[in-house]
Write a structure and sequence with these properties.
This protein has 316 residues and is an alpha+beta fold. It has a single domain, classed as Sandwich (Jelly Rolls). Helix content is 31%, strand content 17%. The protein has 9 helices and 13 strands. Strands 1, 2, 3, 4, 5, 7, 10, 12 and 13 form a 9-stranded mixed beta sheet that branches. A 4-stranded antiparallel beta sheet has the order 6-11-8-9, with no helix packed on it. Strand 8 and strand 9 form a beta hairpin. Helix 2 packs across helix 5 and helix 3 packs across helix 5. The chain starts with 7 loop residues before the first strand and ends with a helix. It binds 2-oxoglutaric acid and fe (ii) ion. The site of fe (ii) ion has 3 residues, from loops. Keywords: Iron, Metal-binding, Oxidoreductase.
Length: 316
């Protein structure tokens, strides 16, 4: 396992830099997504105090009795909103479930919005009144950050600056509050906190987790342990963006390891950016040109792609 750091870029150079800094950001960010698929972001615009408050309510929620948490697990929602307990999600082609439980929240729409009934409504734990406002605030800050990163990505892949943002407008973007319990609480031999997997969506933003454990697979197969500095955020490419860019940008395998019974509980906050369900993910011509001219993936809507992939991981 290697410890060399991931590429690091400063989002301030993109959002308030001069033209040279903007171009530098686009180049560094894009090349990192192309080479490793993961990049650390300095100055992501996420309030560190808010992040600590969110981890505080996450700790409070997951410390509730299992029966209380299960009130927020609706089998009809198949994990798309509210609580999902231990033993549910597993990586693709793997039967042993991951050692994690989580909470999902999605976008909120006004009742007269055309997509108001397209996604399940959010649910909120009544035991923790601050859960909803804090998560909603974090979701908003992450959305702003994701827009800047998607713009930089669009410029890098040679399309109009707003194309990827436009694709994600009213998409089913989900904030996941993850809890990996202390190992002594679980018994499944061979299970990992998160088995090797690739994310399904366009890009993922990962706030700094409360404990180490995340590892990214490098091109030579070795695992790189990721350790962010406080205030940094990770961005990685998901399979939908790899598809849409004809493989130019790399959806990299990653995992969360547990090293022993003494592991502390770990909390993490991935934000999975999704396109609108009707968007076609057929590879973009500019990316086909940059990847040798052969179209590698057929057209498919984000809706069909997601449905198939959720089925493969026990959430569909
Ligand atoms: O816990 C982490 O740091 C990463 C989680 C992750 O990769 C996922 O939920 O897809
Ligand atoms: Fe992931």
């Amino acid at each position: 396992m290697s410890q060399s750091p991931l590429p690091l870029v400063d989002l301030g150079h993109f959002t308030s830099g001069n033209p040279v800094q903007i171009a530098g950001f686009v180049g560094h960010f894009g090349r990192a997504l192309e080479n490793i698929g993961f990049v650390a972001i300095e100055n992501p615009g996420i309030d560190p105090q808010l992040l600590q408050q969110v981890y505080g309510v996450a700790q409070e929620f997951f410390a509730l009795p299992t029966a209380t948490k299960q009130q927020y697990q609706d089998p009809e929602l198949q994990g798309q909103r509210g609580f999902t307990g231990l033993g549910q999600e597993h990586a693709k082609n793997r039967s042993i479930p991951d050692l994690k439980e989580f909470w999902h929240m999605g976008p909120e729409f006004a009742p007269d919005h055309p997509l108001a009934t397209a996604y399940p409504a959010n649910v909120w734990p009544k035991e923790i009144p601050q859960f909803q406002p804090l998560l909603t605030q974090l979701h908003q800050q992450l959305e702003i950050c994701s827009h800047a990163l998607l713009q930089a990505c669009s410029l890098y892949i040679g399309t109009s600056r707003h194309l990827l943002c436009h694709m994600t407008e009213d998409g089913n973007t989900v904030l996941r509050v993850l809890h990996y319990p202390q190992m002594a609480e679980v018994t499944h031999p061979g299970a990992l906190r998160a088995a090797p997997h690739e994310d399904i969506n366009l890009i993922t933003l990962l706030c700094d987790a409360t404990q180490p454990g995340l590892e990214v697979q490098q091109r030579d197969g070795s695992w790189l342990a990721v350790q962010l500095e406080p205030g940094q955020l990770l961005c990685n490419v998901g399979d939908m963006l790899q598809w849409f860019t004809n493989g130019l940008l790399r959806s990299t395998t990653h995992q969360v390891v547990n090293t022993g019974m003494e592991d502390s509980p770990r909390f993490a906050l991935p934000y999975f950016v999704h396109p609108r369900p009707g968007m076609d993910l057929a590879p973009l011509a500019s990316c086909v040109a940059k990847t040798g001219g052969q179209v590698r993936f057929p057209p498919i809507t984000a809706r069909s792609y997601l449905k198939e992939r959720l089925n493969q991981i026990g959430l569909g």
